[in-house]
Structure formats: C-alpha cells, structure tokens
Amino acid sequence: xxxxxxxxxxxxGSAAPRWQLIADELGADISAGRLAPGQRLPNEAQLAERFxxxxxxxxxxxxxxxxxxxxxxxxxxxTYVRELVLDYALQRRTRLTQSLAAAGEQAKRELLASRIxxxxxxxxxxxxxxxxxIELLITRSSVRGRPVGVSTAAYPLPxxxxxxxxxxxxxxxxxxxxxxxxxxxxxxxxxxxxxxxEAHEADALARAPTQPLLEVVYLNVDAQGRPVEAGRTVFAAxxxxxxxxxxxxxxx
Amino acid sequence: xxxxxxxxxxxxGSAAPRWQLIADELGADISAGRLAPGQRLPNEAQLAERFxxxxxxxxxxxxxxxxxxxxxxxxxxxTYVRELVLDYALQRRTRLTQSLAAAGEQAKRELLASRIxxxxxxxxxxxxxxxxxIELLITRSSVRGRPVGVSTAAYPLPxxxxxxxxxxxxxxxxxxxxxxxxxxxxxxxxxxxxxxxEAHEADALARAPTQPLLEVVYLNVDAQGRPVEAGRTVFAAxxxxxxxxxxxxxxx
Lengths: 252, 252
Known about the structure:
The structure is a homodimer. By secondary structure, chain A is of the alpha+beta class. The first copy, chain A, folds into two domains: 18-81, Arc Repressor Mutant, subunit A, CATH 1.10.10; 86-249, Chorismate lyase-like (Chorismate lyase, 3-Layer(aba) Sandwich), CATH 3.40.1410. Chain A has eight helices and ten strands. The first copy, chain A, has helices at 18-31, 44-51, 55-67, 96-102, 123-126, 163-170, 173-179, 199-205, and strands at residues 71-74, 78-81, 86-89, 107-118, 133-143, 146-156, 185-195, 213-222, 227-236, 240-245. A six-stranded antiparallel β-sheet of chain A has the order 4-5-6-9-8-7, sandwiched between helices. In chain A, helix 1 (18-31) crosses helix 3. The two termini of chain A are 34 Å apart. Chains A and B meet through helix 3, strand 7, strand 8 and strand 10 of A and helix 3, strand 7, strand 8 and strand 10 of B. Strand 10 (240-245) of chain A pairs antiparallel with strand 7 (185-195) of chain B. Chains A, B: Residues 16-84 form the HTH gntR-type domain. Chains A, B: This is Phosphonate metabolism transcriptional regulator PhnF.
C-alpha cells in the first residue's frame, strides 16, 4: 500500500541484468507489504547467498532500489525499507486531505488544538491588521496510526469564524472552508525547507529529534485572490515526499 | 545580500508593539550583514538589556524573526542567524544557474566529475534502453565560497554528446544544452525529500553528517517533450529553500 515514487517496473525478460531482476523481486516484496516499512533488510552476505549472486551484483540491486525510493541505506546500520507513506503534491489545488485519502483507509487528520488570537505575525500574509483576529487550527495527519505531519494554520476573522467547529464536524479543511462560503481556493505559494525538529515537534510526530523534518510554509487564496489560509506544515521526512508536476499546473 | 524569504517590513510607526520594533531592528542588522549567517545572537538576557525590555518581549521578537526566516533557534545552544543564502524556485523553467546568479557575484557552479556510462537506472526516466549510454555530470554550487548543493545529472547519448566540455566552457547547464541544440527545456517533475547526508555528501557540502539535506529528483524535457536531463540535487538545508509560486506556472 506504500505510495512509492517510482513503482517497480513490471518483471522484465531474461535480457534484463541479474541485479535488475533482484531489485524487481525485492521491490515487489516491499509493494506487497512482505517487507514492511522501517524493516531492516538481511545483510548483503545473506541476500547475495539467497539470490546466488556476488556482493557486487547484490549491491547494484540495492542501489537501484534506493534510487527508486524503496529502501534507504543508513550508515553503519544497514539497508531499511523506506517509511515513505505519503506523496504530497504541491499543485494549484493542493489538498492534504486528498493526499491522505490516497494513502488508504487508515489515514486521518485530527484537530489537536484551536484558539482565537490577534493576527500578529500572520497579519501580513492574510492582509489583516496585526490587531485583527485569526482562528488558529493545529491539526495532525497520520497514516496507519503513525503521525506524518502537523499543520498550524491561520484563518481570518470574522470572515471564517467557526473553522475549528466545522473541521471537527467535517474532517477536512476543504469541506470546512466550503461550509463557510469558500467554494474554491488555490495555492498561491509554498516555501519548502528542511531542518531538525524542535522537541515539541519531535514529540507530536513520534520521531527522534535526530530525524529531519520537511517544512512547507504556504498561502491559499480564494477565487478572488483573497487570502483564506496561511500556514505551515511540518512533515516527518521519513514518511513524506513532496512532488511538483508540470501537468498539475496546466500548460502555459 | 542574503535572500531571506520574508524581507523585514519597513520600520513601522510608534503604534507597532515593542517586540516588532526589536525584530525589525535585528532583521535590518541581518539583511545588512552586520549580523552574519551562522553567527550566534547574544543571549536573551543580554539582548533584553540592550533593548531595555523584559525577557518575554524579547522572546516575542526572536519568535517573529524565526517565523520570517532570519534566525533559527537551536535547542540548548542559542539563536543563530540563519545560513539561508539561496531561494531555488521550482517552476516551469527551473534554472539553478539563475538562482545562483540572484545570490550575487560570489555564487558559482563547478564541474566535479563527468563520465560516460550505460544508462542503467537512468534509462526509464530518459526513455533509453538500459544499455544505451549517458553522460553523467557531477557539479557543485557554492555561494560566498560555501557549498550549497551537489547535482548529479544524466544526459542521453549520442544526442547530447559533449555536455561536460560545453559546461566547463560555458559555466551553465542551460548554455551547454543550447550549444548542443536544445533551445529550450522545461521542468516536467520534481520530487522533494529530506534526509541526513551520506558521508560523501556531507564532505562535498562541507557540512556535519547531522545536518539535513533537501533532495530534489527531477526530469527536464525539451520543447517536443523529449527528456534531455534527469538528475538529483542535494542541497544543504541550512542554506537553501525551495519555492513554488503559482504565478511562475502561469494561470490555468
């Protein structure tokens, strides 16, 4: 069920090199869940023996799997099935709930906290005065019971009063915005960076403080170009990749 | 000269809260280079004394600076001027050399290595047979003498024979492709992830192995949609952010 970036090619004919066949077989094991995310592969000597090849050939297979996003080598520790579970497309209509839905039934987004406060540092993004009010929602996204992202998003008041209640009822930011009269919204800007987590972020994501985050700072606007949501999401980088596809943005 | 994501707002009137004025002043010091990238700020007690405010107010100012991308708190170690030097726009015409040029005179891209080899794992991306040949270029981008990214890119042969020589002569991938008959190319897909570096990557970027990377795996195609470049770039995450702007992709 894992959404890997480059699905394993269908088994190739006997013309394919030996390492490619091994990579295909291991990739199929991962796609089918016979090798689970986070699991360590047997060591190179064991795998080489299992497939009846030398270490060099085996290493070529593991390198191909790593390039395809199936596994990740950790220095001095071995090769692990990558914990990638979510492909989050940055596109004109970027929708986290839809990306989660694509990850399967066990994906969900929950409200951790909400509060009403002065716009402060969010004011400029949202076209408000600093003393205007916003509603702040903190939500957590999980796949198969494992947290993958925590979002902090600000909504302008009084226009969007009731977002927390609407989200709690409808389970989706898009549905909540629609219920408050925002028929459509698009992503105006995303800024992506990577860093190590703060302690509270590592806690919320159930990750070690040594595991990097992907951070997306974003602004969504309605059909008239008015800001409706400014926010930032931190994703556990072992579980999420971001994709930007020309086709998703329409041709020029 | 640092390309920060959210430039400091112009000094506000006396109606602005005290913490905002302090954030503006420190932000101006950073923009002007009076506080250098990587430098640690004086501790909170010293700063509070300098500005004649209590710790709470000072902390609000530092939080605003962090949100604006000027500084970064490191747990148990203090607050540092962020080493962000490069904003790399993922857009229809994504051009690393242009992003570097925007970072100023001291930015450059150099050829670390090149070789000709079977297409292998690059074949599918480039629409080649695995036994076809590619030219592989490994380049390093630096700003103000500090490495910010290392790119590994594959070009299909025989069509683009001579890329390494052309790049060495012209100093830009875009110019090298043009000299080989590719008048224009566009970004078809970028996949962004974050992870800790391998030892050789940390070496090439002159970073500690505990400092995260931003990795971009990409495909560029010519005006006819034929792949001309498949590659991956690892960026030092303390020095680079990626941006995706709707305006760069044209309206639908």
